[in-house]
Amino acid sequence: MTEAATPKRDGRHDRKARSAARIVQACRDFMQTGCFQPSMPAVARAAGCSHRNLFELFQTREKLLLEALRDEETRSAILAAVLKDSLPPQTEGDRTRLLQAIVLGRV
């Protein structure tokens, strides 16, 4: 009996995943320090990738911003900066809508 050979991973897939992670982290870094709507060129520079690569991975700025918002630390930093001493939204749905409005410029 022979063991099934494990399929080889394509190195491009791994590079793509690492690039995407660097891009999202760069975007989160901007957002956590008060720049809630960073430009795509600024994010690309901070992530050490090309503007083209960023758009190949995320297609739109909105998709990147929403992906960055999936991080709880980023969400908390934005709410703390915007709300300061105000009461936070009561429900998770309200909190999510407020964060998306801030980040996507729909306030």
Give the CA-CA distance, first to last residue: 64 Å
Encode the helix/strand succession as letters: HHHHHH
Strand content: under 5%
- The number of domains: 1
Task: Describe the largest sheet.
Answer: none
| Gyration radius, rounded | 18 Å
Task: List the total number of helices.
Answer: 6
The structure class reads mainly alpha
Overall pLDDT metric: 89
Low-confidence stretches: none
Tally of DSSP β-strands? 0
Overall morphology:
elongated
Helix content: 55-70%
Give a description of the structure.
It is a single chain. The protein has 107 residues and is an all-alpha fold. 65% of the residues lie in helices and 0% in strands. It has 6 helices and no strands. α1 packs across α4 (61-68), α1 runs parallel beside α5 (72-83) and α2 (40-47) packs across α3.
